[in-house]
Sequence to fold (159 residues):
Amino acid sequence: MLPALLALGIPAIAADTAGTVQKTLQTDYESRDKAVARRDIDATLAHYASDFVGVSRTGKTHGLPQERADFQDTFALPAQSGVTRSVIEKLTLAKAGTEADVTLHRRGTLILTDAQTHQNRTVVLNGTYQDVWAKRSGGWRLIREQVLSTTATVNGKPL
Fold:
């Protein structure tokens, strides 16, 4: 079939490899991490699909409007700084390369100023997530994020 397409002058469309998709999605995660540090809600959500579904550890689901509201609440905190680092641990292509299942580790550090004592508190969140990305017009979009595990500390003590 491929030689016939090439003979007709129709170029073959190369499927994305897992390595190529991983590089693309890692770049998207890094872009999101930088947007979170800037508290830029639109850039933070730029790679989310309009039909995005978030799933908590307890199985509770929410859509993109709630995800936006959650980020807005976080960005409204009296923080000195906030940094996240997201790293893909595993990626598997599905549905003929149009979906990617990603296991992700994310570490977030937020330095908050206590309103009463005016001292800083360092909040560290560590989580593992199972994300599903879909290749759609305009690129890869995050369609589902499920929290697998999370831990949190404040000044090194469990929250």
